[in-house]
Design a protein that fits this description.
single chain, mainly alpha, two-stranded antiparallel sheet, globular
């Protein structure tokens, strides 16, 4: 009887999804079938045979591939939240294709699949390598994978914006467009998926033995390293082939195995068999409904963004099932010269900050593209343009760095940074609404950005209240909301509206539109919020010790976490208004301060503020002068610096 329930439940889910998708698709194809062809060249039937039907077939094949990839990842990593989206595999493939399109187009001629496979393999190697160092902790895998996914997706979007003359359609494709013009892609994707699935079929039995535990599986003759390599390679290949063909389709690999489990499939063999069927039916339904309701805009609305909008809430719903234990943060031992103390690094950081500030204001490029100092009759006019940008960069960098210090101490995780809290994505959503729905001036856009940030922060707090604002829950909730908001912004940007270019410019972190009023606002808020953070230094010294010791000395856990996350969120929101949602200064500042020997809360925040402010000022200066007369956004420069730094931190063992 139990065996029959294991079959009937998933089968009913597949039948229901296919029937619902079939009803929606019937309304798409019935006009072409009901009409009579007047000639051999019937446009309606041509569209049906070479666009609509290939698209539906692509949805079925891509959905099955992503669901199988997610099921394999979840089984081999023992992580119910693993899938190509949460592990950054799809985003890595997309970034590789964007970079190849811009700088190495000859590689695309050799094979798009190879480029996508290389990007996916690099992303998977980074995330799985980190997971191996940390015992394949579900929290570490998902956190590092989603952060890597956010960075890859953000950098892909920025590169597309900076080269929109050449890559205008690539943005829509990168967000997961299933639009087809022939049967070439679905047929090519079919045999590749079938080949990988056939290879994976030979490892189902040893994969099933992992449920007994690693030691028991090894005793039964399972070669764990070899098994992980084969299964992960197959899962990566499936995700890479789909991304190469249609772009990033989000969260199908997470939703399909989850529905299979909820419908009764429990054993690994059943999950691996039923997940692709459910994934195929699910994406088939989603794309059919999208085409039906979008009408003529169906080809321009990316299906991947739509699936991410629905997949992110599922990730939020699954968070309570993820068992996480608070990890005590081990402060690195300062290995520098004994003559150094906490004061010396702070003095060096202060001197470096002053040098960066002076250079940013005084040094520039002349008309003949040479280096020059600020002088002459137009000095005041030039200073009135440079100084607000420098002040805004300084204040934003300092706030992000202090927010990063708070988050890293609260979570005990060295990879935590403000960018992954989701507040930056909320600000992006607010600006998108302001541009597309209201179209106010810059002050109105800033107000909408603040409302969006605070709204996301409120949702995060409400979803984490039952866990007493456990740090890991808050971060993962922020990441999932960030993915959902990014998907909404992707849909808006794919509409073809010229205002999308303004949104992408803001997301790139450009200080081009910063004026004296905005700079004064940034500086005033930074002074107030950083001062408030300094007053919470006692909490930040005690909370990293863990919940029990903190409660024993009288620290109110829920209230203190709520207040500290609120401060970090407000600082992140305000800084994002000036330098965009992706800078990684919040990661670099606290780490450099800690490596300089500033381990206590207050000295670390002071050092991080000076380092973060100096890094952002330097990024703004470099972006303004390195390719003069063109400008590279400060947020992009900072992200390009922060990415290698982030990869280095991911290699460290917690």
């Amino acid at each position: 009887m139990r065996y029959r329930r294991d079959i009937i439940g998933p089968a009913l889910v597949v039948v229901f999804l296919l029937c619902a998708g079939g009803v929606a698709s019937w309304f798409l194809i019935s006009p072409a079938l009901s009409g009579s062809a007047q000639s051999n060249y019937d446009i309606t039937r041509m569209v049906l045979y070479y666009s609509t039907l290939p698209r539906l077939a692509t949805a079925l094949i891509a959905g099955a591939s992503l669901a199988l990839s997610g099921a394999l990842f979840q089984q081999v990593l023992r992580n119910p939240l693993a899938d190509p989206t949460t592990l950054g595999v799809s985003a890595g493939a997309n970034l590789a294709l964007v970079i190849a399109s811009l700088f190495l187009p000859g590689l695309l001629g050799a094979g798009r699949d190879l480029v996508a496979l290389l990007g996916s393999a690099i992303a998977a190697a980074i995330v799985v390598g980190l997971g191996a160092r940390r015992g394949f902790s579900p929290y570490s895998l998902v956190l590092s994978g989603l952060v890597l996914s956010l960075w890859c997706g953000g950098l892909s979007a920025i590169l597309t914006y900076l080269n929109q003359r050449f890559l205008a359609s690539l943005f829509i494709w990168g967000a997961g467009s299933l639009a087809q013009q022939s049967w070439v892609i679905p047929l090519s994707l079919l045999w590749k998926t079938a080949a990988v699935a056939l290879v994976c079929a030979f490892v189902i039995r040893p994969l099933s033995l992992l449920d007994l535990g690693e030691s028991s599986a090894s005793a039964l003759g399972v070669k764990l390293v070899r098994l992980r390599f084969v299964v992960i390679s197959g899962a990566v290949a499936l995700a890479a082939f789909v991304t190469s063909a249609v772009g990033v389709i989000g969260f199908i690999g997470l939703v399909a195995p989850t529905l299979a489990r909820l419908s009764g499939a429990r054993r690994p063999t059943q999950l691996i068999i039923w997940s692709p069927l459910i994934g195929a039916a699910l994406l088939f339904l989603a794309d059919s409904v999208l085409q039906l309701f979008a009408g003529e805009l169906g080809d321009f609305l990316p299906t991947g963004a739509v699936t991410a909008i629905f997949g992110s809430p599922l990730l939020l719903a699954l968070l309570p099932r993820l068992k996480i234990r608070h990890r005590i943060q081990q402060s690195p031992v300062w290995r520098g010269s004994r003559r150094w103390n906490g004061t010396t690094p702070a003095i060096i950081a202060a001197v470096g900050l002053l040098v960066f500030l002076l250079a940013s204001v005084v040094v520039g490029r002349s008309i003949d593209n040479g280096w020059t100092l600020l002088s002459g009759a137009f000095s005041y006019d030039i200073l009135s343009i440079r100084l607000p940008k420098t002040i805004a960069a300084l204040a934003s960098g300092a706030m992000l760095a202090v927010a990063g210090s708070i988050l890293q101490r609260l979570t005990g995780n060295e990879m935590a940074s403000p960018e992954v809290l989701g507040i930056s994505a909320g600000a992006t959503f607010g600006v998108a609404i302001a541009l597309f729905a209201v179209a106010p001036g810059l002050p109105g856009q800033l107000a909408f950005a603040m409302v969006g940030s605070l709204s996301v922060l409120t949702v995060i707090f409400l979803s984490s209240r039952r866990s007493a604002f456990a740090p890991e829950r808050v971060l993962l909730a922020g990441i999932s909301l960030s993915a959902m908001v990014d998907a909404v912004v992707g849909v808006l940007s794919a509409s073809g509206d010229p205002r999308a270019a303004m949104l992408m410019r803001w997301m790139s972190g450009s200080t081009y539109l910063v004026d004296a009023r905005t700079a004064a606002m940034e500086l005033g808020v930074a002074i107030v919020l950083i001062a408030v953070a300094f007053t919470a230094r006692r909490w930040l010294d005690i909370l990293p010790l863990g919940p029990s010791p903190s409660a024993a000395v009288g620290v109110p856990l829920a209230r203190s976490r709520f207040a500290l996350f609120g401060i970090a969120g407000l600082m992140t929101a305000t800084a994002t208004l000036a330098v965009g949602p992706l800078s990684f200064v919040g990661l670099m500042g606290p780490h450099l301060a800690r490596e300089a020997g500033l381990t206590r809360a207050l000295p670390q925040m002071i050092g991080a503020a000076m380092i973060g402010g100096g890094l952002m000022v330097a990024a703004d200066f470099v972006g303004r002068t390195i390719v003069s007369p063109y400008q590279i956004p400060a947020g992009l420069v900072s992200a390009l610096i922060g990415a290698p730094f982030f990869m280095l931190m991911m290699r460290k063992k917690a």
